[in-house]
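cron nightly-structures :: item 1 of 1
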Amino acid sequence: LGSAAVACAVSSGQGPAPFAQDAIKRLSSRAGTIQNLHSRLEAQSAELRTTATTAFAGDASSLLLKSKSGSSLEAFPKSRLLHAVGRTTLRGGGAREMSAAGAKAKLGDHDFDYDYFVIGGGSGGVRSSRIAAGHGAKVALAESAFGGSKADGGFGGLGGTCVNVGCVPKKLMVYGSHYSHDVHDAKAYGWDMTEPQLNWQRFLENKNNEIARLNGIYERMLGNAGVEIIRGRATLVDGHTVEINGKKVTADKILVGVGGWPMKPDIPGGEHAITSNEAFFLQERPNRVIVVGGGYIAVEFAAIFNGYGSKVTQLYRGPLWLRGFDDDVRNHLVTEYAEAGIDVKMNANIAKIEKVDSGLKATLEDGSVMEADVILFATGRVPRTKDLGCEQAGVELAKNGAIKVDEGFQTSVPSIYAVGDVIDRIQLTPVALAEGHCLADTLFGGKPRKTDYSDVPTAVFSQPPVGTVGLTEEQARDKYGDVHIYKTSFRAMKHTLTGRQEKTLMKLIVHPETDKVLGIHMVGADSGEIIQLAGVAMKAGATKEHFDSTIGVHPTSAEEFVTMRTRWEPPK
């Protein structure tokens, strides 16, 4: 700061101003004080470690701590005290463990190598391992992939699917693809510009650099928390043993957090198609794309490729996509995709794929034929338990390969646990984070708790995006019978000038007797941001009256949620 002040003064042709000189003096004084304090703390830490090392030379399993006055405080387990005095704070938060022997002490009273061994460096595994280490456990985490910044990185790495080939790069592609709309819309607001040119390779390079940066952040977070990272594929041997890189290690408790993997249907020529994994590393933007599927991933990639200028056809084998979402949301998005130029075909599926000179030829089940440069299957994900050793270790699996767990994430083997996509509950990153955190608190923090799966807000980053929390209208009617519906559809203010026909949908589902809001649904710009706070309101038990009595923020689309007064009645 002092140097900056002097530089500013010099750049203006003046000598160091009095205020700058004063700032330098004050900063120098504070720096000296901090250095003295740091030296004293280092000396005290060294003395404490020496004392602890001497004390631990004995055979006592616990030590009787005494205050300065000599009065007894409590008998403290040696392993826990060793952990406490051996923790060295690291810059940026976290800690590394340095026991008298130079390695982190185990928290539990056992002969295993670790208190906690985590298989998989995804969202649930990373969170659970960090929290467990923070509670004092000796933790190791095994991850086989070495980063999603390159196509040969194993389509994974620290951070799991979300960071490497999921949420993060997908959202970056959503941002990038939307610029084509923004350039077009800017003309209505007075901005004249030349037709933009896409540099796909530049985008890929920037995206990959960001993923590599995040991989490094995750590695540092784990290291700072005291988690040992082991590079390699770990498999289960028994309830307390895993094998990794040809070596067997043991743990008091084992967590499986290996996530899921995209699947492709077994059809002739299926090897010519790609999944979302490969979609993140296409070296050229395809001119023609067929997206097969009707879930989150398919809907999102159809809009991504469309925004980047590809001619997109989306096929879904059922009558209406996004199964499990509110029907108004599903139908509204079909209309919006058609308006955006995406050819959406319901009740359509590919029977076979052939490679031809002009690209890929897809023959549909009805006999019709279409061609594309890329065919992307987004037809579901399966738990990644194949060859994991679950059967050998006695871990029971469901028919789809998911690991069966109880409400505390315990498998059929008491010492083995599982969280995240591999248990096939709600396949969302924040859910895996919550599960892993709850488990670590329960096992090592003395704070037993369960994951609450009610009213989980979620977003589909379609274009326009979807935000939803709570019950759909169909679910609410099945559960409560008659319900009150409030909904509206309108063109957002931005598009009154652009001429774009994109419309926003908003919907509230209300209990007829308690007035409690049962579901909130939106399709429109920023719906993901809006639905996060709507989820908080629902968790707090908000009623329709609460919404009605809230003053709106004007002019916004979100204010419609607090101004809808007229109940919608279904046609008779």
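cron nightly-structures :: done
The longest strand covers residues 247-256.
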